[in-house]
Amino acid sequence: MRTLLPLAWHSAWHRRSTLALVVFSIALATFLLLTLERARHDLRSSFTQAVSGTDLIVGARTGSVQLMLYAVFRLGGATNNVRMSSIEELSRHRAVAWVVPLSLGDSHRGFPVLGTTTAYFQHFRHGDAQALVLTQGRPFGGDLDTLYEAVLGAEVADRLGYRLGDRITLTHGLPGAAAGGLAAEHADKPFTVIGILQRTGTPVDRTVHVSLQAIEAIHLDWAGGAPLPGLRIPAEQARKFDLNPKQVTAALVGLRSRAAVFAVQRAVADYPAEPLMAVLPGVALDELWQAVGLGERALLALSGVVALVSLAGLVAVVLTGLNERRRELAVLRAVGAGPRHLLLLLTAEGGLVTLVGAALGAVLSALAVGLLGPWVQAHWGISLQWAAPTATQGLWLAAVLGAGMLASLVPAWRASRLSLADGLSPRA
Amino acid sequence: MIHARDLEFAWPGRPPCLQIDALDIDAGAHVFVHGPSGCGKSTLLGLLAGVLLPRSGTLTVHGQDWARLPASARDARRADDLGVIFQQFNLLPYLSVRDNVVLPCRFSDARRRRATQQARDGRPDTAAADLLQQLGLPADAHDRPAGTLSVGQQQRVAAARALLGQPSLVIADEPTSALDAALRDNFLALLAGPLRQWGATLVFVSHDERLAARFDRVLSLPDLNRAAQSAVSA
Fold this sequence. Notes:
The complex is a heterodimer of chains A (428) and B (234).
Chain A: H1 4-14, H2 16-49, E1 56-60, H3 64-72, E2 82-83, H4 84-91, E3 96-108, E4 111-116, H5 119-123, E5 125-126, E6 130-131, E7 134-137, E8 149-152, H6 154-160, E9 167-168, E10 171-172, H7 175-179, E11 191-197, E12 208-211, H8 212-218, E13 222-223, E14 226-227, H9 235-238, E15 247-248, E16 250-255, H10 261-269, E17 276-279, H11 281-324, H12 326-334, H13 339-380, H14 391-422
Parallel strand pairs in A: 4-12, 8-11
Antiparallel strand pairs in A: 1-16, 1-17, 2-15, 3-4, 3-10, 3-16, 5-6, 7-11, 8-12, 9-11, 13-14
Helix pairs in contact in A: 1-13, 2-11, 2-13, 2-14, 11-14, 12-14, 13-14
Chain B: E1 2-9, E2 18-25, E3 30-34, H1 41-48, E4 56-61, E5 64-65, H2 71-81, E6 82-85, H3 97-101, H4 103-107, H5 109-118, H6 124-134, H7 151-163, E7 169-173, H8 181-198, E8 201-206, E9 217-220, H9 221-224, H10 226-233
Helix pairs in contact in B: 7-8
């Protein structure tokens, strides 16, 4: 073994241009497998971490997945709003402990703006029932004096470089519309950053939080998504208007006892004044995950096929190379190498090539996650963790290595047979 | 030393290509085997080296019948006691000249031990360098990759490798066919010298009968091989 490894290395180095291709294809397969697995893992945890401690999510009647998507993940828009009076009535239900109304529809430089109440900072939970923590400043006050105050998610503050006291203006419309250039600025009513939240790895990181009254105030002189011509209400005068919200997008509901969850859900569904629905976050998440999971499994199968193809490439290259190496192997046989030496030699080469390829793929995957992570976070809200490999990733890596070794056994077995027939005769 | 009786070899499903009733070669003899292409020269060498096994009959080398040894023991014995020189492409192009010569020591402890004794300072590398010098390859070429040498130089390296560790039998399969006349004579002289030192047997196969003068004994394989005779007459 000790004497053969340098030989395997020299021989492989001699054929490095061919082997580099194999290394590259194995690296590519490993890269795909590991990166997809990382994305899949973190997508799943992003989903399940996004909301906890909320018993029901209430919104206008729509699909439960859709309600979940816009209320929790800030993806897509609501087709209908909910009257504030309905939310207030719901909060008087004897089983309901707290209600956090959510008002969506504006954005700031691509990040969604959420109008809510101070109850949000009190009751919202994510991950393993963790509360929101401010790393700097304080929550907005929720009264008229503190009307134009904003609390930023960690990602918003990081990416845009905001600090406490900075002034920001909101954009009418969702992030997608802002990118299309159709949006208009609420430039006349700038907000002051008064708090920055700790990173959570959830959509909260990408959200700009303001009070419901502030959302009302910036839309006083607006109608149907555009400023009313000829009407200008300056920021200070806005305080004199009735800023109590008439409508919100959705609400998070906490119950006194989980046992009441179906009763409250039914009560919401049967609410006579307007068509509403309430979904259990866990159930909606499962439903959502099933929809996403199909694509996820397809991706996984695809990367498995990629791995298979590149391992087949390894076998093919080594087998083709075997013809060129007949001389080399015959020489080795003539100087006393037995079939087991050749077996070892070729398996060592296969192992070496697979190891280098897999290592390269792992490094590439880590680099990609490190470099593209922020971009993925910004565009899809999935925070990719630059962390130690997950168990499944380790399994994939081991599978690639094992399959590589196994694949190199095929040519090794053929070589040990071939060269015996080749024997000493160079013309054979 | 080498005794063959009623030796017969055939590739599977083919008529016999080698049939030798009797062949005896003394230890230390330098034997020249000649004959045209396809008369079974390479097959004979394969049998002598224990790479091929006869279909019937016996072939003993140093009193040992190859056919009685399991495959792994044949490999070990070949590594210990046999030096081989091919027609060409003897070397691993990615190893240095010196590493090519000491290659048998990687696979055989006996060769390594004898190469160590052969050397002035007890290192196989030194034994290899001495042999290369003896065969006319200057020291500055010893560290070059073997693939960069001329064909004539490569054959000398192959000869040095076949001689390292004093194997008792050296077989050479047309090693001079790629060399011109002057180089050929020189090569034969250089090869014979060291072999005489420890009394090794040399079986040298070629179609070129002009080389025969340098050998103790000359064998014509077509005369020896009944299979070739019948093939010719048929």
